[in-house]
Amino acid sequence: GCGGSKGASGGGGEERVAVVLKTLSSPYWKYVEAGAKAAGKELGVDVTVVGPNAESEVMQQINMIEDQLNQSPGALVVSPSQPDTVVPVLETATVPVLLIDTDAKLKNKTSFIGTENYEAGYEGGKLLSSLLQKGDKVAIISGALGNTATDERVKGAKAALEEAGMVIVAEQPADSDKTKAMSVMENILQKNNDVKGVFAANDDMALGVLRAVEAKGLDVKVIGTDGTLEAVESILDGKLAGTIAQNPYKMGYEGVKNALAAINGEKVDKRINSGVEVITKDNAQEKLEFLKTISK
Amino acid sequence: MAVRTESLLEMKGIKKSFDQNHVLKGIDLDIKPGEVHVLLGENGAGKSTLIKILTGAYQKDAGEIYWEGKPVNLQTPIDAMRLGIATIYQELNVIPQLKVYENIFLGRELKRGGKMSMLDHKAMREEAKRCLGMLGQSPNLVDMQLGKLGIGQQQLVEIAKALAFDAKLIIMDEPTSSLSAQEVEQLYMCVEQLKKKGIAILFISHKLEEIKRLGDRITILRDGFKIETMPVQTTDPDYWIELMVGRSLDEKFPKQTFTLGKEGFRVEGLEVAGAPEPVGFSVRYGEIVGIAGLVGAGRTELARAIFGADPSRNGKIFIDGKEVKIKSPRDAIDAGIALITEDRKGEGLLLDQTLDFNITMANMKKFAKKSRLIDLKGIREEAKRFIKELKIRPDNIELKARNLSGGNQQKVVIAKWLCTKAKVFIFDEPTRGIDVGAKVEVYRLMNELVENGAIVIMISSELPEILGMCDRVLVMREGKITADLPIGEATQERIMKAATGA
Amino acid sequence: MSQVVVKTKNEVMNGTLKRVLSKFGPLIGLILLIMVLTVLSPKFLTVNNVMNIARQSSINALLAIGMLLPILTAGIDLSVGSLLALSIMMMGIVTVNMGMSPFLGILVCLAVGAGFGWLNGILLTKLRLPHPFISTLGTMNIARGIALIVTGAAPIAGFPYAIQFLGREFVGPIPVSFLLVIVVYVIFHIFLTRTQTGRYIYAIGGNPEAARLSGINVDRVLIIVYTISGLMAGLAGLVMVGRVNSAFPLAGLSYELDAIAAVIIGGASFMGGVGTVWGTLIGALIIAVLRNGLNLLNVPADFQMTVIGTVIIAAVFVDVLRQRKSKKA
Amino acid sequence: MSQVVVKTKNEVMNGTLKRVLSKFGPLIGLILLIMVLTVLSPKFLTVNNVMNIARQSSINALLAIGMLLPILTAGIDLSVGSLLALSIMMMGIVTVNMGMSPFLGILVCLAVGAGFGWLNGILLTKLRLPHPFISTLGTMNIARGIALIVTGAAPIAGFPYAIQFLGREFVGPIPVSFLLVIVVYVIFHIFLTRTQTGRYIYAIGGNPEAARLSGINVDRVLIIVYTISGLMAGLAGLVMVGRVNSAFPLAGLSYELDAIAAVIIGGASFMGGVGTVWGTLIGALIIAVLRNGLNLLNVPADFQMTVIGTVIIAAVFVDVLRQRKSKKA
Ligand SMILES: Nc1ncnc2c1ncn2[C@@H]1O[C@H](COP(=O)(O)OP(=O)(O)OP(=O)(O)O)[C@@H](O)[C@H]1O
Ligand SMILES: Nc1ncnc2c1ncn2[C@@H]1O[C@H](COP(=O)(O)OP(=O)(O)OP(=O)(O)O)[C@@H](O)[C@H]1O
Ligand SMILES: [Mg+2]
Ligand SMILES: [Mg+2]
């Protein structure tokens, strides 16, 4: 869905919830948007979803929060690109503030809805280890260094892989870019052609890695993170070994739902875990159908 | 060493080469306070190079420089300026984006107080007005943006820049090449005043009359060697030429007269931007028509308008009685018109491209083969032909235009337009900066063009060359053609009268 | 047409008006933009929102005025975004991690920016790299790399109030950061128009060879130019830290593009020698107003890019049209 | 010194060698880099790895050769990364979503790139925007916005083999994409040195006014230049799709920087008129070799940027040193 005006369906008197995401330029955040919009439709809330061009546009996100607050919404749902940065502006907010996907040390927040990225990475590491033997060589593909979400995932994955006794022979960045990930993997294979498994900090990179592996005709287990449509399809085709989905749709949906609850003065849990889903061949079909319904 | 107190400046055994090109092979030069010392030599003889070494713009390979008897080491232009050397370079060295007065004080701004204080714009303006006044220029000029001025006025600003400087030696590298008679006269008066104040002047020029008039001593350079230094007044210009080109020159203006044919080129009611009324004139086969006038008379504007170089223009142009529509330079070239522009650096050359590239640029079509690829060999041969014909030096087609001497650059621009095989040639100050020998070559070329059935129009601020080479003279003033004189009736006085309106 | 015309007072006035307009050329683009947004959104022309814009523009305004100098010399500084990041990371290490005085921190922040800027200048002039694109592309990567290394990519939060002051506080309704912008711009205006070095910057951009032959120490001026550009990156970082109370190594990513856009929209030329302080301010405001307006109108993110692209072209085109008219008249 | 020196055969040889060196200047930087990496990693100089580098460099090489043209005219094209993305998204829609012929898809891909490039040229010449930085910054945003809009930011996968061929296949050990690069570079070399338009490109960059007065239709040439640059973005996109078998709207993000870097490292000048096809190839290879080497050596992520920055400066500096020496000699 690409329209922003669909929320304005009902008559006046609707509550308005502003949702400021890290970006809207990737499928993951589109799922969050879809969830938020769906909740708005079901509950009769006017939902505005905005986000900068890229996750790295941190100040642009702050500006967007300011501009949304300026229009006095009933509540604000935010997914901070850099957790600490939103604190000063959100502290001044006089309306309920809910954080989704990424938490921040905000005193006046109503709730945090999401899964820690560390946990997602940890699950990914566990999944990869379960497919391999102890002592197997693995590689990690990280996002652009300094991107807190991918950095946390990498930390989690590393911890799980090390616990399971895997040998991490390479850890290289590919800036969350599919093409770069492919090149990086080709180069890693050049030196370590006995790598048995790869953890990638997002699905795009996982798919790029997969391409490099396939081209060499090697049997390497590749695990991604995010659970995008493309990744799930690849799992169904028996290519990608698995991905860790953080349930972005649910985050968006719960975010708006609880925002409305807060506006109405109802009690909202301080911490709502949207859970992670480990997606492998077993449950991929189900996930695919769900993703298809929400992305129309 | 001998006592040197007599000399202001002494250069000894100066050597300089660029790559394999040995330009200066041991030059000696001495300049005394209050004298006008002239440097004379063919294009590419190394005059500009020598003075650039003196001003710290280039580094010498060998030799010594003494200033007031003491050896000096000139690493940068600042070093030379500190000694009291002011320089008017051959190629304009101005900042088009800055105002006139800012250009005049560039590098030596006046300030309100100490070293760190603000600039004193007011004082600079006043002082700039004074310097421009010495050259007979209006004080209103000071606040103009320099880039908006014509090339002649820019040159005057350069001269004013040197005057504003409390110098002991002023170097002038072809200062009069872009000036017309009136400004030249002002400059001569200026030079005489400076001389009286004991300021020495190192003067480079290709104009023999002016050397005779101003110079005290003359040094002749040839092939990187100093040939001779001698007093100006007691020696004969023909002797200088002999020393400088290695042979004697029979005639300075090889004028040939051809039978006058029918009208070949006609301009009717042409509205030139900035001109008060439409302009028209015609040229017949077999004649060379000169256009004279003062700086800023609008001659260049007229030429550019004919050529379609400036937009919005009304009027008709006929070649052989047929009207040609000209909206752009491309149209003009297709119609067979060539404009040899006056500003070789700004409008003529690709400084970073080779000579063959430059020479064939306006006529690349000719070298496209059937395969639509360019015939590189053909280009090189054509370029070599022109280099030989115009005696461009060094005769290496691979050289970048930037590395040629000023006069040789001018020849490359001429070659570029000869290469187009046009029918109508408009030369705008074609001999600017060209040495006496080469000038004759250019004049011969014009003769040849006329003989072979081309129309030739020459815009020039050099009255002698107008009088010497043209069959008819148009005089312009403030955008209007104020006189149309057959050469028999054209005298210096009549032309000046029409040009000044006096 | 053909007679000499005595200038009437009216015409003289017109002339002055024209000069003012041509000086504040891009202003017309800004005014048009403001008019359109005022019509489209009732929230746009409120004190609150105007102050928002003032605050949101300040970081880019500071980077842009620094960027003006290299561009005036026909150069460019691609490193400002990275220098901003490195400056604030170092400030964070000094004040938060090591707990030293906030004033020392501010000093470190500005010094790191200026120091790396100086390095840009040295690389350009002493190593004689062919174009600042290369040297600043290099230091852009180097500085970003160091910013990532120093804390292992971790962000730093919890800065002392003294550091936050500039980016956070208000004087009445006016954000301190915007007052800072005004002060800085006034200083730059004086610097560029009234001091020797300022004029030399224009001269070098206009014709570097002529500048050198006029005895200007071109290298020295260029080093000053890049040092100042780096210093402004540090200052912009200080303001940013004040706004978000944290420093992170990816701060300022690709900010150089916005800064360059502001300078060019403001009427400066990549060919050097042309450009003004006030034009740059207007350029920065155009960008900030545009972003703010799009947010107020809740334009979806993917459409925002398209709109921003179109408006950038349109804003400059308005100026081009105006100049063409004033030339014809 | 003053006598005429007869050139020995040796000297003539030396001269030729020098000319070759000065033509392939940045080559020395590349060779040095290769030597260092060969020593550091035994895997580096293997056929396999060399082919890897060839393949990895191809996308940037194609963008860079397109970028060379605007830079030769003293311009720039910031939009190539975005045009790449838009081209492949449209190709995806045509072939995957709508199931049309892959050849139509390829045509669409190239046409979208060329079409937007043409628009860049029109904006620059007909609207008379002051510098292509503005027009291409505008279209960079517009094209990226559209790329995001057309599928709502969703990627498209599963391209037919005919489309994947270029980016995926090998002829013996040699990747087809690199053969494509070679062919394209040869064509560009012929275009730039042997055709009228090619030479006009150099002329315009060297002195636009002189070019115009020499009868060159400057606007027409500039439009061609930007159209070709866009076309190459489309072609690079085609190779990318072949490599990763999917199109995504954020593809090619900030690829313009790598392309510009390759051109400048390859010895071209932002001032226009200077630069060669082979230099550009070497520039693209330097960047690819560097990235490959960092991966092979498993250099930690945080050090990579710093190393890249340093090597960019060093590679160019080597060339500067060489030129300075050859001038002295
Ligand atoms: N920067 C340079 N690089 C290479 N060669 C140069 C350079 N500057 C000058 N030359 C060469 O040095 C020689 C002397 O040039 P110079 O400009 O000194 O001549 P000139 O006597 O002033 O001639 P003109 O009367 O035409 O001005 C010429 O052959 C020229 O090609
Ligand atoms: N771009 C410009 N902007 C404003 N004024 C200009 C511009 N170019 C030329 N002028 C002015 O127009 C007038 C005519 O200049 P033009 O160059 O045509 O004269 P000219 O007779 O050819 O003299 P010159 O001997 O200098 O070539 C001059 O006063 C000049 O200062
Ligand atoms: Mg000379
Ligand atoms: Mg003239």
Automatic annotation (TrEMBL), chain B:
Q: What topology does it adopt in the membrane?
A: Peripheral membrane protein
Sorted alphabetically, the keyword list is: ATP-binding, Cell membrane, Membrane, Nucleotide-binding, Repeat, Sugar transport, Translocase, Transport
The answer to keyword ATP-binding applying to this record is yes
Q: Pfam families, from UniProt?
A: ABC_tran
What are the subcellular locations of this protein? Cell membrane
| GO CC annotation terms, alphabetical | plasma membrane
Q: Which residues form the ABC transporter domain?
A: 9-248, 255-499
| Main location class | membrane
In terms of PANTHER family, this protein maps to: CARBOHYDRATE TRANSPORT ATP-BINDING PROTEIN MG119-RELATED, D-ALLOSE IMPORT ATP-BINDING PROTEIN ALSA-RELATED
Question: What name does UniProt use for this protein?
Answer: ATP-binding transport protein
- Organism, as annotated: Geobacillus thermodenitrificans (strain NG80-2)
UniProtKB/TrEMBL annotation, chains C, D:
Signal sequence span is: none
Q: State a GO cellular component annotated for this protein.
A: plasma membrane
Where in the cell? Cell membrane
- Where does the sequence pass through the membrane? 20-40, 61-91, 103-124, 145-164, 170-192, 221-241, 272-291, 303-321
Keyword Transport on this protein? yes
The answer to whether keyword Cell inner membrane applies is yes
For membrane topology, the record states: Multi-pass membrane protein
| Pfam families recorded | BPD_transp_2
Subcellular location, principal? membrane
- Highest taxon in the source lineage: Bacteria
Q: Which UniProt keywords apply?
A: Cell inner membrane, Cell membrane, Membrane, Transmembrane, Transmembrane helix, Transport
One example GO MF annotation: transmembrane transporter activity
Q: Which PANTHER family match?
A: ABC TRANSPORTER PERMEASE PROTEIN YPHD-RELATED, ABC TRANSPORTER PERMEASE PROTEIN YPHD-RELATED-RELATED
Q: Tell me the protein's name.
A: Ribose ABC transporter (Permease)
Q: Which organism is it from?
A: Geobacillus thermodenitrificans (strain NG80-2)
